[in-house]
Structure formats: C-alpha cells, structure tokens
Write a structure and sequence with these properties.
The complex is a heterotrimer. By secondary structure, chain A is mostly helical. Chain A contains 25 helices and 2 strands. By secondary structure, chain B is an all-alpha fold. Chain B is elongated, with a radius of gyration of 17 Å. In chain C, helix 1 runs antiparallel to helix 2 and helix 2 runs antiparallel to helix 3.
Chain lengths: 687, 99, 181
C-alpha cells in the first residue's frame, strides 16, 4: 500500500475527533429516538434538535480549527482485508469537508427546529426525527469519507433516507410512488458510480480506493479509460444531483414533508453529487483530452436552462422551487466542468445555494402550513398576514436571483468568470439566459404568493418562533454569506477552498454589469406581467402556445423516458412471447407430428408380423393356465383369505397410531432421536 | 475451550426443536428449523476454529446455508400455496395423514 | 473454572444469542418472533467473527438476516392468518414437546461434556502453530481450488443448481394459478 495506514490511536487530532463527534451525535439521536418509537413523541423531537445543535457547534469548531491549522491528517484503520487488497475506513477532514460539515449541520439544525411546528401532531413525528437524524449522520459520513467505497456506503444510506422521507406519508399513493421513483432513478446513476468504483479498484496500481492516493494510482491507464472512469463517477452525481436526464425524480420528491425538501432535496443531499465530483476532481483532470470535463459542463449548462424554463410555468410553489434547484445544481455542475477554474466557484455556489434554497423551502413550508395549499394561484395577499415569512422569502428570492449584493450574486458571478476564463461560449450563453430566467420565475412566484388580492378565503397567521427563527437566520446568511467569496473582500473563500493552488480571479466588470442587467430585466419582466399587468397573461399564453405547452409538459421528458426505456421493455417481452408461441411451439409440434408418423410405421409392422407369433404363444399359455386355475381356486385362496383377515384385524388396531396430527409425528421423530442418544449414552459411555 | 459454544449450539438447536414441536403456525415452525440449522452451524464453526485449516468445516457451513436458503424458499412457497388453498397456515390443521 | 478473556467475550456474545433464541420460540406475536430470530442470527454472526470465520459471518448476515429473515417477514404479511387470531400460538401437545426438547438437550449436552478436551484437539496438537489462513482464503481454497485434497468443486455447482431449482419451484408453488381469482 502506498498510502500510509495510520494506526487506530496514532494520529488522532482534536480536529478529527471533533469531526467524528459531529457524526456521532446524530447517530446517537437516531438510535435513541428511532428505538423509542411512539414513546418519543413528546421528547424525541427536542432530543434530536439538541443533538444536532451540539453537532453544529462541534462542526463550527472543526471549521475554526481547519482555518487555523490547515487540514487534519487523515485518520484511518483497516476496514477489511482480502488477499493483497486492503480497504481502509477513515476520516479525512480538510477544508472542503469542514465547509460541508458546517453547511450540513447548520441547515439540518434549522430544519429540525422548523419541523417542531410543521410536524406537530403528526403521528409519525418520532419516526420523522429519527430519519432526519439518520440522514444527517449519513450525509456527514459522505463528506468525511476517506475512500470511495466508504463514501459510496454512506451515499446509499443517504439515498435510503431520502426514500424513507419522501415516502414519509406512505399512506398517500403519490408519496410512495414518488419515493420509489426517486430510489430507482438515482439507482440508475449509482450503477454507473459503482461500476466506476470497481474499475478504480481493479485497475489502480497499487489497488486502492483512497481518495488521496487514487489519482496517482490510475494516472498511467489508457486514455480511453481515463475518460470512462470519471464519466461513470459523474453518472452517480447525475442521479443524486438531479442532472438531465436523471432529474425526473426531484420534482416528484416534493411529495415529502416540506422541511425534508428543504434539507434533502435542496440544501444537502442533492449537493452530494457536486461534492462527489469535487472530491474526485483529481480523476477528472487526469483526462488530458478534457472530454470528461466537457461532458460535465454541457450536461450542467443544459440542465440549468432546461429546468429554469420549466420553472417559469409551474403552479405549485414547491415545484417552482424544485425546478429552480435542478437549474442551480446544473449551474454548479457546469462550473465543475471548468476544472480548476470553476472548482471553487461551484463549491461556493453550493454553500450559498444551501442557505437561500433552504430558506426558500422553509418559507414555502411556512406558507403551506398556514394556507394548506401548494397552488400559488390559491394564495396571494399573504404579505400583510405573514410579514416575517414574506420578507425572508423575498430576501431568499433576491439571493437566488443573484442580485447585487446578495449571496447568489457573488457565487453566480464566480461561475460566470470561470466560464469566461475557459472560453466556454455555449455554456456561458446558456448560463446567462438562465440568469435572466431565474429572477423572472422567482418574481412570479413571490408576487403570486404574497401580493395581490387573496384569491381564496384564509385566516393565516405567522407560526411560533420555532418557525420564524430559522427563516431569519437563513435570511441573514443569504444576505451576508456571499461576502466571504467576494472579490472586493479578500476572497476568503477562494483562499480556503481551492484545487491544487489558489488563484485570484480577475474582476470582470462586463460580466458583473451584464448579469446584473439581466437580473433586473428578469425582475422587471416578472413585475410587468404579474404585478402591473402590462401584458395579459392569457394573451401571452396564446401567442407563445407551443413554447408554453412544451415547458408546461416539462419538455416531454417523462414521456420520453416512457418511450425510450419503458416501451421497449414491453416490446422485448412481446417479442419473446411471440417467439415462444411460434418458433418454439412450432418446433415442438413438428416433433410431435414426426413421432406420429413413426408410430404408424411401427404399428403396421407390429400388427402384421409380431401379432401372429404372439397369438400362438397365447394359445399355449391359455391351456396351461386352465390347469393352474383349478389349483389356485381350491388350495391357495383359502390360505390367502386367512392371512388377509388377520392383517385386517391387526391393522384396525394399529391404525389408531396414525393420528394425522402433524406435531405428533415430529414429536415421535425427535423423541426417538433423544431415545437413541440416551441409550448410547447409557450403554457406550457410562458403562 | 469451546464447551461454552458447543453447549450454546446445542441449546439453540434444542430451542429450535422446542418451537418446532410446540408451535402451530407453519412460518414459525420454519423459523424454528432455521434455529436448528444455526445451532448445528455454530457447532461446526466452533469445532473448526480448533483446526489448523478451518476451510473444510467452514465450507460445510456454506453448503448448510445454501441448503437452508433452498429449504426456506420451498417451505415458504408451500406455505403461501397452502394459504391460497385453505386460508390458514396452522400446520396442525392438516389431517390428510389421518387414517 | 477460570474464566479467561475469550470465554468472557463468548459469554457476552452467547447471552443475547440464547435470549433471542428463547424469545423466538416463546413470544406470542409472530412478527416479534421474526425480529427476535434476526437478533439471534446476528448474535451468532458476531460469534463467528470471534471465531475468525469472517466469511461465514458475512454470509450469515447476507443470507440469513438479509434474505431468509426478510423472506419470512414477507410471507408473514402474505399469509396473515385471520382465523388463527384468537387461538393460542401453542398446539395441543405442547407439554410433550417441552419434555422431548429437554431430553434432547440433556442428551446432547451429556455427550459434549463427556468429550474430553484432548479428544477435541488431540489430532491437531502441534499444528496450531501454523499461521491460520484468513477465513476467506481458506473457504475459497476448499470450495474452488482444483487441487485433489479439496473435493468440493462439484458439490458447489450442485448447490447452485439446487438453489435454482428451489427458486423455480418456490415461484411455481407460490404464484397464482390461472384458475384462481
């Protein structure tokens, strides 16, 4: 093994101990709340929230320590050993990990707090919290994993939690179907990921899956393999991070409780794909032709614009946010495709996106909790009644839209700069169009939800502090968190997380003003249509009918999947059926016909020649038999009848043993075995 | 050495016998048969651990597990079929063997 | 009797195995029984690990806990016995069964206790110094290598056919017949 296998006790540092503790608390919470079940309805949620709060504190300390001392040495011990293959189980706490730890625990804590009200009175609340805790543990496991297989194990655990939580209201048909869909679609990607991992394991020299050692271990492979392996790993990321064409599960995942959508399907789990690609960036850059990274960029940029267009026509507030999430994830994936130019930007956007998308989902949860509907056309006029929710939601929307100086602006700008630096013209154009569409659909969403006249009678009011506090915290973060990566404030984030070496990015005024202009134009268009009514919505729909229907039907992707994947399966099975009926059955029938013909020939031979001989023998036999018959009737029958009578008499007594009661038979069997054993013991051993 | 484990194996086996003889639900009896097999397997492994090359004895256990799997499949298939046909799975209600 | 470290460890592992085995047989609710069975199988797997039989332990968990126990749970759901609800979970001759099981246990234990330590290990004295192969390699050697001292190649194939036959048979038995509704 090239990398050093640290002994269990050797190189533990305070940082790694705290990182492991960060994982341990939610795990403990999961075990306690999960095992107590119904007993834990009252105190379970509180306990879970406290445990995650402690995790949050330890993770912040970890971040502080990593900022102060740099990454902690990887702690690992041997997980399994087989032949010349050794797999470690380790914790790698570096800058990326420390940042992810903080993001995950922070959003998770706020979601725990928020759910206290949102899930109040739900009969499955203890299960809900147990699953949230398990999810947090698994997610922290993904970010601290030191080797690919360990990462994959936690990755699947995260997927399982996502499945459980989407299907949390499993009595709802749509919910459990959405859960199944999410599970299967992400599995499609995971097959790729797992294949990639196995290829890494087999082809690397020396055999290793350690994330630090892997790039150098597979560096000397054939160029084609160096394209295939990263792309297989990227497949896993496509599934988890909902990239086209594996995005179909994410909109359906909104069937889960809204806090779950905030935690899993906006802030953390879907970011795991980004994290995976970032972690394996060393593998992607091995490909000297750059094809792997190009694919990543194009998938990401297409997903970004594709999902943004769909988001413009959704009626369900959570669906808007879901498609917006897909679009923003596309942004991040696109940035990852720029290699070292976009690495930092992608992770920066991941962090800011976690804040404002978590905020938006929790805000929508607050609205849904108050109005009991998810359809934006049934809301409206909530601004006065829910001021805190409305203000925080608007701040989140502005951050998502990427308006100066909110968080989204800085990270989006960093991505655009990356696109410019790599001269990726098409992705840059797609990203700019997305940057225009995003403020448009968010304006539409905000206006329909909070402004205008109430379109439905409702008596809504703000919920308790447990609901509003997370919103306020996230809103503050959405506003200020961008400054850590702003070029005018020392690029703290870029100095902290980078690929190979830190490079200061040039301030590109054209892009800054250009994108700000696009954002303002988007907001203006949204206001023009929905607030001021300059254009009649119906007229627009009529004029742009084909486009509208195309977006409304989500680019017919679900139909395409049916056409590409589901239908052919039917056809294949139809064909097999037909083949079975005609070819195989035909062959069988042919054999049967042949047999009949042969049989007829044999019959003629039999009837003509063989029968004559047989008849002669028969005649002789009859004569002999007549003699025997006489003897039989008089002498033997008498004896036989006597025996039969005796047997019958004994049988009538003995058959009572056959009770027909199965346990009796078994008992007799085992009793006999015991008896034999006892007899052997008696005669052979004791004497 | 392994008296403890051998006795444990015997005890688990006997619990399996106990269940097989006293319970009425067919699935539970199947579970008890699994217990018996496990008791036997445990004995195998405990003894094997004394050998310099435990591979032989352990491969016996591999076979035992494979056969247990086959037995469970067939058993459960039979139970499901029985449930379809009769509507119950209590073994003692079967009296076709009665004279 | 002096309790050594490893004996203490085995006792710690044996206790849950025994308790779960007892519960599997005695609890009334069949689902609880299945879960106790899983607990017992897991405890046994832990003992296997202690005996350096990691492959068997993995197989135990994967096949018994992962497949068989789940299969059992599924069939419990499929065959929810409505009529049997009020009945006792014991059959009519349960008392007799207790005595038989006790007798069997007594007889087996008698044999175990009468086997001297030397009888168990005599044949192998002196060979224990050999470095043990890892369990996985030992099992792999025994099952698959083509050397003459390990004759299990064919039986392995037979076992796989047995499993295949069992799967086909199980499906055939359990599936809905065409004349049923």
């Amino acid at each position: 093994m090239e990398h050093t296998v640290a002994s269990l006790a050797g190189s533990w540092t305070l940082t790694s101990i705290l990182a492991v503790l960060t994982m341990a608390f939610p795990l403990l919470g999961f075990i306690i709340v999960g095992l107590c079940g119904k007993i834990a309805k009252e105190w379970g949620p509180k306990l879970a929230t406290i445990s995650i709060f402690i995790s949050l504190i330890t993770s912040i300390v970890v971040l502080g320590l990593v900022i102060a001392n740099g990454p902690a040495p990887t702690v690992s011990f041997v997980w399994l050993q087989s032949g010349n293959l050794t797999l470690d189980f380790g914790f790698r706490v570096d800058q990326l990990c420390a940042m992810m730890l903080c993001v995950v625990t922070l959003v998770s804590f706020l979601v725990h707090l928020f759910s206290q009200d949102y899930m109040h009175g739900d009969p499955g609340i203890a299960r809900f919290y147990a699953e949230l805790q398990l999810f947090t543990t698994a997610m922290l496991g993904v970010v601290t994993a030191s080797n690919l297989l360990q990462l994959f194990a936690f990755w699947e655990l995260v997927g399982l939690c996502s499945y459980l939580l989407i299907g949390f209201w499993f009595h709802k048909r749509s919910a459990y179907q959405a859960a199944k869909k999410a599970f299967f679609v992400t599995k499609v990607g995971d097959i790729g990921l797992f294949t990639g991992i196995i290829m890494c394991l087999i082809l690397s020299n020396p055999h290793t899956l350690n994330l630090e050692a892997l790039p150098s271990a597979i560096a000397s492979l054939a160029p084609a393999l160096l394209i295939i392996i990263p792309l297989l790993i990227f497949m896993g990321a496509m599934g988890k991070s909902a990239q086209f064409p594996l995005h179909v599960w994410l909109p359906n995942a909104m069937e889960g409780p809204t806090p779950v959508s905030a935690l899993i399907h906006a802030a953390t789990m879907v970011a795991a794909g980004i994290y995976l690609v970032a972690r394996c960036m060393g593998l992607f850059t091995l490909d000297s032709s750059g094809i792997a990274l190009k694919v990543v960029t194009y998938v990401g940029s297409f997903t970004a614009i594709f999902a943004a267009t769909i988001a413009t026509v959704q009626d369900d507030i959570k669906k808007v946010l879901a498609y917006s999430t897909i679009s923003q994830l596309g942004y991040m994936v696109m940035a990852l495709g720029f290699g070292k130019f976009g690495y930092t930007a992608a992770l920066f956007h991941l962090m800011t996106h976690a804040m404002f998308k978590g905020l938006l989902f929790l805000g929508s949860g607050s609205v849904i909790h108050a109005t009991h509907t998810q359809n934006m056309h049934e809301m409206g006029g909530l601004f006065k009644k829910m001021p805190i929710t409305a203000w925080t939601f608007i701040l989140g929307s502005l951050a998502l839209a990427g308006l100066f100086p909110f968080a989204g602006f800085w990270s989006k700008d960093a991505i655009l700069v990356g696109a410019e630096a790599t001269h990726s013209t098409i992705p840059l154009i797609l990203a700019l169009i997305t940057a225009f569409l995003t403020p448009y659909y968010m304006t539409r969403c905000v206006w329909l939800t909070f402004f205008g006249k109430p379109r439905k009678e409702n008596h809504v009011h703000e919920a308790s502090w447990k609901t509003t506090l997370p919103l306020i915290i996230l809103a503050v973060l959405s506003v200020v968190i961008g400054f850590v990566g702003a070029p005018f404030f020392g690029e703290l984030f870029q100095r902290f997380i980078f690929f190979h070496e830190f490079e200061s990015e040039a301030v590109n005024w054209t892009l800054i003003f250009g994108s700000t202009g696009l954002v303002l134009a988007g907001i203006f268009l949204g206001l023009a249509i929905y607030a001021w009514g300059w254009f009649k919505k119906e007229t627009l729909i009529r004029v742009l009918k084909p486009l509208y229907l195309f977006f409304k039907n989500k680019w017919f992707i679900d139909e395409a999947w049916t056409f590409i994947a589901v239908k052919p399966l039917f056809y294949v099975s139809e064909f097999c059926h037909w083949f079975d009926r005609t070819v195989i059955d035909g062959a069988v029938n042919g054999m049967a016909w042949l047999s009949v013909v042969l049989g007829n020939i044999v019959y003629w031979f039999d009837a003509g020649i063989v029968d004559g001989l047989v008849n002669l023998v028969g005649y002789l036999t009859v004569k002999v038999s007549e003699l025997v018959k006489w003897f039989d009737e008089n002498v033997i029958d008498g004896a036989v009848n006597g025996v039969a009578a005796l047997t019958g008499f004994i049988g009538s007594k003995v058959r009572k043993v056959q009770t027909g009661y199965l346990p009796n038979y078994a008992t007799i069997m085992f009793a006999s075995i015991a008896l034999v054993l006892i007899l052997v013991a008696w005669f052979a051993v004791l004497n | 050495m392994n008296y403890l484990l051998l006795i444990l194996g015997a005890a688990i086996f006997s619990f399996g016998v106990l269940g097989a003889l006293t319970l009425r639900n067919a699935i539970r009896i199947l579970m008890c048969i699994e217990l018996m097999l496990n008791g036997a397997n445990l004995t195998f492994i405990a003894t094997a651990s004394q050998l310099p090359d435990p591979g032989m004895a352990q491969s016996m256990v591999v076979f035992a597990i494979a056969i247990a799997a086959a037995e469970t499949i067939v058993g459960l298939g039979a139970i499901v079929a029985m449930y379809r046909a009769k509507g119950w799975v209590t073994l003692e209600q079967f009296s076709l063997l009665k004279w | 009797m002096n309790v050594t470290m490893s004996q203490a460890l085995y006792m710690a592992l044996a206790f849950p195995a025994l308790v779960f085995a007892a519960l599997t047989v005695t609890v009334k609710n069949i689902v609880h029984a299945a879960i106790c069975l899983i607990g017992c199988l897991l405890s046994i797997a832990a003992i296997y690990v202690g005996l350096h039989a990691d492959f068997i332990a993995a197989a135990q968990i994967a096949i018994y806990v992962g497949a068989i126990a789940i299969l059992i749970l599924f069939s419990i759901m499929f065959t929810h016995d409505v009529s049997g609800k009020q009945m006792s979970h014991l059959n009519r001759q349960a008392v007799l069964g207790v005595f038989v099981a006790l007798a069997l246990f007594g007889a087996i234990s008698f044999f175990i206790m009468n086997t001297s330590e030397s009888q168990l290990t005599t044949n192998f004295q002196g060979q224990m110094a050999l470095p043990p192969k890892t369990s996985l390699m030992a099992v792999g050697d025994a099952l698959y290598s083509d050397n003459a001292s390990t004759p299990y190649m064919v039986p392995v194939e037979m076992a796989s056919f047995l499993l295949l036959a069992a799967v086909v048979g199980g499906i055939e038995m359990a599936k809905k017949k065409e004349d049923e509704v």
